[in-house]
Amino acid sequence: MYSGDMCGIYGGSPDRISRDAARLLHHRGPDQQGEVLVHARSGEPLLIGQARLSVVYKKDIPTPMTRDGAVITYNGEIYNWTAVRRELEEKGWRFETPTDTEVALCAYLEWGPECLQRLNGMFAFAIWHNEQLFLARDRLGKKPLFYVHGRDGFAFASELKVLRHLELEEVPICQALEFYFDEHTPFRDVKSVCPGEYLLYTPAENRLRRQRWWRFPEFEQSIDDEKGAVDTLLDLLQDSCAIRKVADVPVTIFLSGGIDSSLVQAIVKCPVSYTVQFSEFENTINEREYVLEFARHLGFEPRIVTPTREDFLDTFSDLARFIEFPVGSFSVFPLFCLSRQARRDGFVVALSGEGADELFTGYYRNELLLREAEQIAHDFDGPYGTLCRRYFGTDVERFSRMASRQGLAGVPLLQAFFAQQWSDDRTLAQNLSLLESIVFLQPLLVMADRLAMGNSLEVRNPYLDYRIVEFSTKLSDRLRYRDGQGKWLLRQALRRLVGDDLGITRRRIKHGLPAPVNQWLFKSSAFDRKDWNHILLGECLRQLAEAQDRSP
Length: 552
Prior knowledge:
By secondary structure, this protein is of the alpha+beta class. The chain contains 21 helices and 17 strands. The protein has helices spanning 21-24, 81-90, 100-111, 172-177, 226-245, 259-268, 288-298, 309-323, 332-344, 356-359, 364-381, 385-392, 395-403, 411-419, 428-453, 466-472, 477-480, 488-498, 503-506, 517-522, 530-550; strands at 5-12, 32-39, 45-54, 65-67, 70-78, 121-129, 132-137, 146-150, 153-157, 190-192, 197-202, 207-212, 251-254, 272-276, 301-305, 349-351, 458-460. It has a six-stranded antiparallel sheet, with no helix packed on it. A six-stranded antiparallel sheet has the order 4-5-6-7-11-12, with helices on one face. Strand 14, helix 7 (288-298) and strand 15 (301-305) form a beta-alpha-beta unit. Helix 5 (226-245) packs across helix 18 and helix 13 crosses helix 14 (411-419). The longest helix has 26 residues, at 428-453.
């Protein structure tokens, strides 16, 4: 018995929400739609709506769900919902549906906001109860939840297009990073619920309270034994994969020629995988050869998706309609193509490897800084240490120079922002992992959600199980980075499962998932994202304006 739903949710003051909300979110929930209108004792009306994609329990359920005077609109998967349900049953609760939606509602009625600490999953939901609207988002922000609050009330939605009267207002730190994160959006007075945050809205007073219920764990170096660390990682990852593979619909995997998704596939052994390969990158970024060799070794069917420039031009408006704002990445199109093909082939759930690079210091930019730090450490400790510190700068200065997309002119703003999270009590590797996980991961999760749900496909991320997050913060640095490479522990785990002879285990440099957009549009082979971001933002604004114009 297991059930969860990927959905589009919305609600709040009716005048702040598009009257066409259910249609606008149909791609997120094509199986069921419903709305409930409630009234506060003070008279304020609140609309609560949901569009449901049934992933595990295929029968219709009350959408939104009402129980004991409370109403929930719910988007997500609580992977440990059966354990939470048993705990509630021991307290006398009885259930009418085999769904995690009802478990989430009853958990809130029993424990209040503290119920969130018991949940292992990805979710964004809202509950109306006792004259308050409670909204919550999962620890790392895998499921989206936007809101607007002002003199004329409060509204929330899974996607911006549902909210009325959007006005563009750029955010300087987001312009510097070329993506949006935490509460920031490109629109005036429109915010995102932060990862690991909940809100309480009281209509009678038009009062909103924000509260963080989870923060990224502090680092320690309590795990240093190599074999024991590999054992623990594989145990955690096997369980994380197992609970994310449960579904009443077909499950596949997005597979590259890298460590992260290959380790997941070595564990779950999905019969079919999906990989993107652009013909323009055959000689430079060739994932196909690694995936085909891996598929022969494990015995699964690798399906290679080969998008073209014509396909990109045909789908550009769809990309903008689903993504809604730039995420500073060329991966928007390939992720859309993967999701579209998997859904066309009958799959409703896909596993993916987001989070591994962030948690285990795997990016080339991390390796670059860590290698440099090793090389210059003796200079800092030598007689010219003061000169070296003046020349090289601090760790956070070097990270800011690396991260700046505006050259040296953009460094001061980034450095001031990163310094708020940076701590001299952590090692360089720990600081890098923290910033990658709490800042740079967010736009990747936006892409994973939006472009998959645009095709009514659910993406699940085994590495982002909170138990693996906590485990990663306990590793010694030598289990993260060694011999010039990050993700040392993951590499050892993969070798244990598939041996040392495959290309995926010997590969030293792994590229991301870019599309040749600059070649197609600007006749440039550079990977500068500025022009792409501007074009995408313009189309996003056009699509949002059309959605607003069509809404009565």
